Amino acid sequence: MVKVLIPSGALGISVDPDALERGLRMRPDIIAIDGGSTDSGPHYLGTGSCKYSRASVKREWRLLMQARARLGVPLLVGTAGTCGTDAMVDWLLDITREVAVEEGQSLRVATLACSQNPAATAQAYEAGTLTPLPGAMPLNGEDIAACSNIVALAGAEQINAALATGAEIVIAGRSTDTAVIAALPLSRGCHPGGAWHGAKIGECGALATNNPATGAILIEFDAEGFTVRPSGEGVRATPLTVSAHMLYENADPFILHEPGGQLDVRNATYTAVEGDTSVRVTGSVWHPSERYTVKLEGARLAGYQTTSLVLVRDRRYVEAIDQWIGQLREAFEQREGGNIAGAYSLEFRLIGSNATLGALETRRHDAHEIGVLSVITAATQQAANDIAKLLNPYLLHYALTPNEPMPTFAFPFSPPEMERGGLHEFVLNHVMTLETPMEAFALDVVEVGP
């Protein structure tokens, strides 16, 4: 039997100290937490930066390092610093060094590096050794070589290689959310289907319970399956909340692909236990694959952006907002297009109408005010700024008809143009076949603390 405590859905979003304390009383064999994902878009991978503040990450990491020292069990984080690049592994290692000194802890720390060389990855693509996944964009080697960062997603094999060093703390680069939880149960002979399934259920902490805000959850793995035990006060896991989590961030609610195989939960059974507060799951099946593959993620600089926001309150214009935007765009391109050098894109998002779904929106607005956000993307920041300034008088005074008085709308900020800086886009949605699981990864062990 192996107990894995997941104290939160991600390092940096908050750890509930009370739920953590109750989880520690369950005597887990390891504390495992995810450090990030691609959920927040390509910026963090493109820039190799963390979404969360360093202060919040250090505060929560200190809590977990204190908990680890108290129990004497390993502490493991995957996808360090949101994107999991080598630089973000080093960033979290620096935080670990600081906390170790401040807490008087002498520690052995294993780091797992996942970054890939863009030029070498481009060569692998041209050689046909990368396999596109459904929805992958058309690519060439130059597209891949232009990536600022490429990472390979580690699986349970790479995580277990790090744990096998005997390190008290493991800081892993980009990893699948499930691998950091499934690794130890798999290495200790727990049911492989149960290990991967339980890891999927626990990947976001208490999200698979009736109170996701409590964060912490404990998954107990054994030879036949797993049991989900929330550690928050009064929090319940039910067969509904647990089974429903297979729908979360998963194209198929019954099949989950991971490095080295796939999980099949079509025959899984979910049973309420322990006074209907916990859930027992059996019947999950793990199918190993013939080839060992890892997914690649890459991002590159796609241009620079500037935005402007104008507020439209005139009822006539609110009711005819689509017509107004269409005419405004046409007038702007006819009058100013010849003055703009280089390629650019101009997008309008109507806040209060279709800012979330765009063309997919089916509900029409019924508002007294609509915010019009213009998004200009160009090859340089200066070009994007210049186009935004050309657009400025149109957003402020453009009339629906030539003969009516010039309207006036409101800019909430002065100046209204706001630089967004470099815009990144995802490039790779491919898998790479490895001869051995560690082929694309690098493992290091260091001593930290006084």
The N- to C-terminal Cα distance equals 35 Å
- Topology, number of strands: 19
Gyration radius, rounded: 25 Å
Sheet-strand content, in percent, reads: 25-35%
How can the largest sheet be summarized? 10 strands, mixed
Tell me, briefly, the overall form. globular
Count of all domains: 2
Helical residue percent band: 25-40%
Spatial strand arrangement across the major sheet = 12-13-9-8-1-2-3-7-4-19
Question: Could you report the average pLDDT, rounded to the nearest whole number?
Answer: 93
* Number of contiguous helices: 13
Which structural class do the helices and strands define? alpha+beta
- Poorly predicted runs are none
Briefly characterize the structure.
This protein has 450 residues and is α+β, with helices and mostly antiparallel strands. 30% of the residues lie in helices and 30% in strands. It has 13 helices and 19 strands.
Report on this model:
The two termini are 35 Å apart. The protein has two domains: 2-297 and 428-448, no CATH class; 314-409, no CATH class. It has 13 helices and 19 strands. It has helices spanning 17-25, 43-47, 54-71, 86-103, 118-126, 141-145, 156-163, 179-187, 192-202, 239-244, 315-319, 321-336, 381-397; strands at 2-6, 30-36, 75-82, 107-113, 130-132, 149-152, 169-172, 217-221, 225-230, 255-258, 261-264, 269-273, 278-282, 285-288, 292-312, 344-351, 370-378, 418-434, 442-448. A hairpin with a 2-residue loop joins strand 10 and strand 11. Helix 3 packs across helix 4 and helix 7 packs across helix 8.
